[in-house]
Design brief:
This protein is of the alpha+beta class. The protein is 16% helix and 39% strand.
């Protein structure tokens, strides 16, 4: 096995854990082959996207749909059911659409069961129900494909398409645009039903279609969702990697955000300027973007914009009420840090070839953010603590314990090692275990095969 073949054996998620790469701004899909069918509408090149958008209905249609929902009482302020995996802490005061809509093609019935949607983010839950033996055969094939690795899976047509309209910031549209979709299947007790739930970011006015069926299912906008716009007046902000980013505007909503920003594109450097945003809350606290988001520009819980006083960028507070911006320096513990990984081991392929296992000093990672390390030399175990985050690692073991009894086993030799009188950590998911976000990476120059054979030059972290 050649060196790059070793990494071919890893999933995308494992590779991302290994190198702790920052999230790239492009549509994300499930690793299951069949789910690629669901996400195909969003996973296209810009020209195909633009061509697709020409078919979007006018805004008046959605406005009329919302008005009809309000008049008929078809929305209700209740806790999510099918969407609870995306929003486990509930939806606050938002009004969840729970009125089913259905279309059919004779063999299958597509039903929109629940949805939440604003001008940045949409959550939806939908189901496919078999109505004939032919429809049941298709559902069985789709269900079997969830665990099958056969080459014929890619030939199974997924009958549902999710359409949408991109929603750029309403005041500026200068930087590159990002949108995407993640879909997960959900357990269904009935053999003739398949259920799915999705979230989409950077889109609104979402609809679903079913192959062979007339019409489509429009996802209504949530009538009491909040939104606010901030203008940054083309603020040029230095990035920790020595480059600069230009910030134009930010749209905040109850479910997520859209940022209009332009930063240099480089094969050797990747930095997400989103993480330079911080939020000054009305209770006086400051929360970083990493503390608020779950992934891909959606909040981990519904955000009440009435609790946000200002957004802080480059030590300047931009107020949601339109007040003139003012100076507001961030404390050092909320600023990004730069670490230079060292080799803490090797990852070997079956043919004996190997690549370096990068790691960073636990002390250098935690101390700037106010964290602590408890090291037990007898058990070779360390407890890492940062505010309400706590995880345990043992030198030489690939297991990381964190949270309330959670654990993960890494796809490489160990999570930590005691080396040169200091504890070093491999680049596992610090965001899940310690609340530390990876916001950038400087790669070794060269192509991908060269990069995996050499250590990253620098990795950037932020709370």
């Amino acid at each position: 096995m050649r060196i790059h073949d070793l990494f071919d054996e890893l999933s995308a998620a494992e590779q991302e854990e290994l190198l702790s790469l920052p999230l790239r701004e492009h549509p994300t899909v499930s690793t299951r082959r069949i789910r690629r069918r669901v996400n195909a509408a969003l996973d296209r090149d810009p020209s195909a996207r633009r061509q697709h958008h020409r078919r979007i209905v006018q805004r008046a249609v959605c406005a009329a749909a919302i008005a009809a929902l309000l008049l008929t009482g078809a929305v209700a302020a209740v806790r999510t059911g099918l969407l609870s995996d995306w929003l486990p802490d509930g939806i606050g005061d938002l009004m969840l659409n729970t009125t089913p809509q259905s279309i059919g093609n004779g063999d299958l019935r597509l039903t929109l069961e629940e949805s939440l949607s604003d001008i940045n983010v949409t959550y939806l839950a939908y189901s496919l129900t078999a109505q004939t033996p032919q429809g049941q055969a298709l559902l069985d094939a789709l269900r079997d494909s969830e665990t099958s690795d056969t080459a014929n899976i890619d030939r199974i047509p997924f009958p549902v398409e999710i359409g949408y309209e991109e929603t750029k910031s309403g005041v500026t549209q200068r930087g590159p645009y990002a949108s995407g979709l993640i879909t997960e299947s959900r357990a269904a007790a009935q053999p003739d039903v398949l259920r799915f739930s999705s979230y989409l970011y950077g889109v609104s006015r979402v609809y679903l279609t079913l192959d062979g069926a007339d019409g489509r299912l429009e996802v209504p906008l949530t009538p009491n969702a909040q939104n606010a716009e901030i203008l940054f007046d083309s603020a040029v902000v230095p990035l920790p990697n020595g480059t600069e980013a230009t910030f134009y505007s930010l749209r905040l909503t109850s479910l997520g955000y859209t940022l209009d920003v332009q930063s240099p594109q480089s094969d050797d450097q990747d930095f997400s300027p989103d993480y330079l945003l911080a939020f000054w809350m009305r209770d006086g606290s400051i929360r970083t973007l990493g503390q608020l988001i779950a992934e891909k520009r959606r909040w981990s819980e519904v955000l009440d914009l009435k609790t946000v006083k200002a957004v802080i960028l480059n030590d300047t507070a931009y107020y949601l009420n339109g007040r003139r911006p003012s100076s507001h320096p961030l404390p050092d513990r909320l600023r990004p840090i730069c670490l230079h990984p060292v080799e803490i081991g090797r990852i070997y392929a079956t043919d004996g070839s190997s690549v370096p296992l990068p790691g960073v000093s636990a002390r250098a990672l935690l101390t700037p953010f106010g964290g602590s390390i408890e090291w037990d030399p007898d058990t070779q175990t360390a407890i890492l603590t940062l505010e309400d985050h706590r995880c345990t690692v043992t030198a030489g073991s690939p297991v990381v314990q964190f949270g309330n009894g959670q654990s993960m086993t890494l796809p490489y030799p160990y999570a930590a090692i005691w080396q040169d009188g200091e504890l070093y950590l491999s680049l596992f998911g610090y965001n899940r275990t310690l609340g530390i976000q990876t916001c950038g990476i400087d790669y070794a120059p060269g192509g991908w095969s060269y990069r995996v054979q050499h250590l990253p030059r620098a990795v950037y972290y932020i709370r």
